Target: SDR family NAD(P)-dependent oxidoreductase
Amino acid sequence: MRLKDRVALVTGGNVGLGKGIALAFAREGAKVVVCGRKEDKLKQVVKEIEDLGAEGMSIMVDITNSQDVKAMFSEIVKRFGTLDILVNNAGIYRSDDTGVQDRRNHLDLVTTPIPARSLGITKNMSDENWKKMFEVNVHALFYCTREALQIMEDKGYGKIINIASIAGISGISAHSPNYSASKGAVVAFTRSLGYEVAGAGICVNCIAPGYIETDEFMRGINSMDPETRARFMQLMPTRRVGKVEEYAALAVHLASEEGNYMVGQVISPNGGLVIAA
Ligand code: NDP
Model:
């Protein structure tokens, strides 16, 4: 019970990696709030949290609206009195108008040898698509962080875990430059904020995952032909993608007392993807 009675918010905690973290926190005794835009999925996670014997709460919110984010934090404080842990997990990958950024094409592309010509993605990207990525992955993360700091600085304690991506620290996602840039911003923000607030007892760190086995991700993998799939797995020296539990365990470590000496760090569970490059 490494997080007993801690109050945690996991943005985008209704599916995928966010859900994995929310359930791992609940197993460690935390009271867990999940937010997102899909009510049925939020309710399902709260049920799973409660089935683990923990307290759960869901909030339907679009975190790109800073006023709604403010209201969400008020609701959390009203129900639980405080907030100890913020996981800035919500994020988007897609930027529609290049036509290559749905999950399946994205994975196919990283297995394709780099052509002797430009992929032509950046020069064809619209203002709208560039900005949309930043609105969720960067601006909304800032709105949530700002509200959390109001609470955490007052009590002199807090843990903030930002979810970036391997794309923010390597060029592997050449097919989604706006995604990579947004995650690079999350990495830089983590380091700067980590420095800013460490003296106030707040540890800010970042997890920058490689490929992790969420349902959505596995749908992309499973739609590949066997040859492409094998080529994809060879990108990792481990020859496999990561398990959600392996990834969530890192978040538990950072959120717990065990992680108190971790400040401004960027940790990348990626099966060796980057060292192999
Ligand atoms: P999913 O696409 O499965 O889930 C994204 C989550 O973000 C959903 O819960 C979604 O909720 C929420 N979200 C998106 N936009 C908003 C918004 N405007 N307001 C509120 N919530 C929002 O992602 P994953 O679980 O795969 O990834 C989670 C994080 O991990 C992301 O930041 C991603 O970039 C990062 N990551 C994931 C990797 C992987 O292998 N899966 C690899 C590298 C990084 P809803 O739809 O209900 O709004």
Remarks:
- The first helix runs from residue 16 to 27.
- The first strand starts at residue 7 and ends at 11.
- The chain has a mean pLDDT of 93.
